[in-house]
Design a protein that fits this description.
about 60 residues, 2 helices, about 80% helix, about 0% strand, elongated
Length: about 60
């Protein structure tokens, strides 16, 4: 169970940082300010982390 939690947290961190990095570079290349609340990045990263956690919990 500990490894499933660690894999889930690692997946959350990687996905969240990847999405935020992509968003940063997108706005940087377009020269537009980023005023979005970023809730989509959080939700998608949480769902990805939960998926990884739940698929690894039984192993």
């Amino acid at each position: 169970m500990l490894s499933a939690g660690l894999f889930g947290m690692a997946c959350f961190i990687i996905v969240f940082l990847g999405l935020r990095g992509f968003e940063y570079f997108y706005h940087h290349l377009r020269h537009t300010p980023d005023w979005s609340p970023h809730w989509g990045s959080w939700v998608f990263a949480v769902l990805a982390g939960l998926y990884v956690f739940l698929t690894n919990i039984g192993r």
